[in-house]
Amino acid sequence: MQEPNQERRNLLKGAVATSLASLAGSLSLGEAADAKADPDLIKRENQKEGSSDWQLTRIQLDKRDGFRSPKIEGYCSRQSVAAGEPIDIMVSTRPAQEFKIEIFRTGYYDGRGARLMKTLGPFQGKPQPVPQPGQKNLHECHWDAAVTLTIPDDWPSGVYLGRLSTLKDKTGYGYWQSYVVFIVKDDRPADILFQCSDNTWQAYNKWPSNYSVYTHPKGTQGPWADVSFDRPYAKYAQIYENPQSVGSGEWLCFEFPFAYWLEKHGYDVTYCSNSDMLTPEHGLKCKSFLSVGHDEYWDIRHYESVVKMRDAGVNLLFFSGNSVCWVTPMTASSDGRPNRIMFRGGPYGGKYKYAEARERDNGPFPHRGPDEGYLMGSRNVDPVNGGGDWVCELPEHWIFENTGMKKGDAIPGLIGWEYHGDPPADIPGLEVVAKGTALQGGVNPQQWTATIYPGPKNNFVFNASTIFWCQDLSSPPGHMLPWSHWSRPHGPDERVQQITHNIMRRATS
């Protein structure tokens, strides 16, 4: 294992040569902005009429475990799909009954939050089997598809929700609902590449009852459990109760407020899944890369892609917490579809003390990743969770322009429920722009740091150091404010909005 200084040199210097060599014969970052660029696409999309009825209204959870919705539930055959490509939607109803699927694109849409793109059905539903636990407690469904949807050419990139609704229940008066979720991707040059943290959604998904990477009998932090994307998303299982999360992963909880805010202000944004970042090609066409919310699980290829993007001049913006924590190898499903199974392969962190502790306490692991601090500017620490205020440390920095903030001014509750700290002292030009103390469980103090450092091509890397950042950007329909460790964010805050504008405008100029 490399020493920290050598690792820094590899990441901040040697990776430049590696990434440039890999780009030989291809388009440069600037040259990639070809005829496919369409900077007004999102503005035009959000001028279309949104839907006033896209949320889940009636959800019935399993009475025993309280996570899945057996009346109607489903999943998609792919995490992301491009226009012109097919995606299968698998649905189970219990008992057998008719249902329909409404496909919505989430966005701003004059404050409504989503637009109805297509209604499918009615279909005759049937109960589909819950798989028996496989090797490493894997639950991989092999359900029949209700429909194969080919994505129309005019559907823009975004996060799409399919609302599944039974047409009636046995009373004749009721109906039951849940979501499926998928990302429509593209390869166009854009100002912003918004990466959804869907590996982390799946890592914590307990469907059908108690089967996540955290629930193996051998322990909660080891490499023992595999999880599959071929299963429904159960209700979000961590820090708070959010009924809109049934089938939608963590999108509406910890990421949608950021997308809603970006689209409200007409930013040129395109979307992708974690698995789309296993290669850097699309990211190299974009000016900035966003990690949003809870972005804990990264395949090592994903990490290498983002290093190449930084070294080619892409701005990296970590509006997230507990990010790049676990090496997450992705493998094919049993029928060969790529990147459908994942597990906790080992810690990032190189020889950093907390990575060593994770190995000591929960290993042995088959993988070890580099020190994520040399990518993000700040690291995963222990404890990594808690709650606190986001406190200005460097008010003269350009990120605070027009906020009126002074040193020591605090944004209440913005730190949580996980964060970053202990920035590497030897990153050239790194600045700590905000710092403070979070309390784990309201008792144990831990220090967090928000940082920024210059990249090699007049770009920069920003780390907000909190999962909760998007909570203070907007409060769209379908979203609920979280709280954890006896602390909560307050919702939209003009200072957070202005800081984010400052960063996004610099990153996309």
From TrEMBL:
Region (Disordered): 34-53
Bias-annotated ranges (Basic and acidic residues): 34-51
Ranges for domain N,N-dimethylformamidase beta subunit-like C-terminal: 101-474
Origin: domain of life: Bacteria
Name the record gives this protein: N,N-dimethylformamidase beta subunit-like C-terminal domain-containing protein
Organism listed in the record: Gimesia maris
